[in-house]
Predict the structure of PaaX family transcriptional regulator C-terminal domain-containing protein.
Amino acid sequence: MHARSALFDLYGDHLRARGAQAPVAALVRLLAPLGVHPPAVRTAVSRMVRQGWLEPVRIDGQPGYALTARARRRLDDAAARIYRTAPDGTPVPAGSEGPGDWDRHWHLGILREVPNARRREQLASQLSFLGWAPLSDGAWVGLRNDAEVDQILGQEGIAADRFRAPVDEGAVEFARRVWKLDELGASYDAWLIEAKALVDDAGPETGDEQAFAVRSELVHEWRKFLFRDPGLPAELLPADWAGTRAAAFFDFHAERLGPAAGRFVDSCLRHA
């Protein structure tokens, strides 16, 4: 697990609800069970500060780091998608997490100039997180008119024209092809096999530190689907969608391991 990814997971999964900040000593201690060494933690923190995700603060006289407003918004959105909660915080049943406000239109973005390969890759990473899929090097499609798309394009200095097109009877096949749902379903099945092996080592007698480590790895691997799964409405998904089975498994074990993992986090924060 890379230090930067582990920090994003830690802040998003635990620290966001605990003041969104932590001393450096606590960050080092919390990432140790995940195999992340202190120099890597400090390097990753510095990088996240430069990128605008963290900002330095003093916590009881100690150096620490807090989430920026931008990072809080991104992690709030990520948490809602990871745990499939509605805006009011109530859980959404696995398999029905698609956007309930979908207007039955495709939202298109046509770039006025195709960027170079490096910038295309960077743009793809950000737009994929928002559930958009490429139609070509210069065209993208999404489910809603997301204002953050315009922000991303503006930050990258990329001009685009935006359009809205109604769906037709070919919507299911279009979604399957554009979002590569066959590959995505196979990935969910593969993840489920690995996840079952992972949680088998975390039985009822698991200690707090091990529960934290196992749950962190579970969340870390599950979070990768945020960049691949757009959260399509049920009407656009194949029957017996593999993502529904995987989500139910994740929900059960994330909740089961949550209290012990939280105790370990609280212990590290106190001792720091």
Summary: Residues 168 and 222 are 32 Å apart (CA to CA). The first strand starts at residue 21 and ends at 23.
